[in-house]
Design goal:
There is one protein chain. By secondary structure, this protein is mainly alpha-helical. It has one domain: MFS general substrate transporter like domains (Growth Hormone, Chain: A), CATH 1.20.1250.20. It contains 15 helices and no strands.
């Protein structure tokens, strides 16, 4: 890995100027009261979301015995975010983000309550389940740019990487805890209780949003037309190679790597032949890997370049996909998923930080929305394609192929194109009226 030049070597204050590293530096964002409150509320709520994220593909596979239906669930959940991205980005820049989150999280709570009630009343139609998942996806699509931009409103810029990484940590910690709870519930009390727990969990994040106070920000004047504003963000991104690099990497990971999060259901049933508890442990492994990687990513950000983190993490991610797909047994598969979870956390939190660091403040919400559109568009299409391929050729061939393509793309980006080096570009301090070009 390469190191950043953080001070002039050989100077009299070289030892004193050594950049901070380690666990305390990694969790520095927790010194900000409002971020800490938001983090804990989000952790509780996302734990409930991950209970549902395992329960939905589980019941769909039980009802249909088709990997394609599992892919359709991902498609229904994330495509609304792609379609609504331009509107969601404008909302994130135009309105108070805390209030936006209160509305979108509240509506998601109602949608998940409808899923619980429908299942409790005996609705077993895969189409009805997909419809309710899509309804929740609509409100989540309106939520994502404001959520990710809101993290920036809770901490000073010097703590941004810590905040973004810890935000990813709570997401992946929830991924570790939620599936474990889901596995126990599915094996004992059934899916009804899993869906109920998800609906109730929104109380925690709504309570946290009522308690926090965001840092003041200047809302830029915005012209009329959502698509026009989104087009402006697109033109701006084209002039920022570092943001382009972040979007490209996010798309690759979403299309090729992310579908494995749903396909653990298929591997548990067809390859490893384990029940709900074994399935939950596969998903727990992904979360554990991410949590283990977080202190390394955030704790040494002052001495290791973002480009180096992404370059090597993409390599680890691709290798882990191939190992998981070809694993001779369940234990090897679990270890591969731990590595995969760490690689995912390192790549996504680093490119998210790069985008949030580079982007001009007055375009933050719309640029994050553009990145969200790219990521959430690639993810469901990747899940759909891999679901179809899995039904046709088998899950092992499908996932191994995705891992090999990710390896090839990551190698080209990291060692031939030079694009990843732009992830370390500095913050754009342009005022709203200045040209958007480089």
């Amino acid at each position: 890995m390469t190191s950043r030049e953080t001070h002039r070597p050989g100077g009299p204050d070289e030892a004193a100027a050594a950049p901070p590293t380690g666990l305390r530096h990694a969790v520095r964002a927790f010194r900000n009261r409002d971020f800490a409150i938001f983090w804990w509320g989000a952790l509780a709520s996302n734990t409930g979301v991950w209970v549902k994220n395992l329960a939905v593909p589980f019941v769909l596979y039980e009802l249909t015995s088709s990997a394609l239906w599992v892919g359709l669930a991902t498609f229904a959940q994330f495509v609304p975010a792609m379609v609504l991205g331009p509107l969601a980005g404008s909302i994130a820049d135009r309105f108070d983000r805390r209030r936006v989150l209160l509305v979108t999280q509240g509506m998601q709570a109602l949608a998940t309550a409808a899923l619980w009630l429908g299942w409790a009343l005996g609705v077993r139609s895969p189409g009805a389940i997909l419809a309710l998942v899509a309804l929740s996806g609509v409100f989540n699509g309106l939520n994502v740019p404001s959520w990710q931009s809101f993290v920036n409103d809770l901490v000073p810029r010097r703590d941004l990487l810590s905040a973004v990484t810890l935000n990813s940590v709570q997401f992946h910690l929830a991924r570790a805890v939620g599936p474990a709870i889901a596995g126990l519930l599915l094996a004992t009390l059934g899916a009804t209780w899993a869906f109920f727990l998800n609906a109730v969990s929104f109380v925690f994040v709504l309570g946290a949003l009522l308690l926090v106070r965001a840092r003041p920000r200047t809302r830029p004047p915005m012209g009329k037309g959502v698509l026009r504003q989104f087009g402006r963000a697109l033109r701006y991104v084209r002039g920022q190679p570092g943001i382009v690099a972040g979007v490209v990497v996010a798309v690759l990971v979403a299309f090729l790597g992310n579908p494995i999060f749903q396909f653990t259901v298929v591997f548990a049933a067809e390859v490893f032949v384990v029940g709900p508890i074994g399935l939950s442990l596969l998903n727990v492994a992904l979360g554990v890997g991410a949590v283990l990687a977080a202190p390394v990513v955030s704790g040494w950000d002052s001495v290791v370049s973002r480009a180096a983190v992404v370059r090597w993490s993409l390599l680890c991610y691709g290798v882990a996909l191939v190992v998981f797909a070809t694993s001779p047994g369940y234990a090897v598969g679990v270890v591969a998923l731990v590595v995969m979870g760490g690689g995912f956390l390192a790549v996504i939190s680093t490119v998210n930080t790069a985008v949030q660091t580079i982007v001009a403040d007055h375009l933050r919400g719309r640029v994050i929305a553009l990145r969200t559109v790219a990521f959430t568009g690639a993810y469901p299409f990747g899940a759909l394609v891999q679901g179809w391929l899995s039904d046709a050729f088998g899950p092992r061939v499908t996932v191994a192929g995705a891992g090999l393509v990710l390896l090839a793309c990551g190698a080209w980006l990291g060692w031939r194109s030079g694009l990843l080096a732009r992830l370390d570009d500095p913050h754009d301090d342009r005022a709203p009226g200045e040209p958007a070009g480089p």
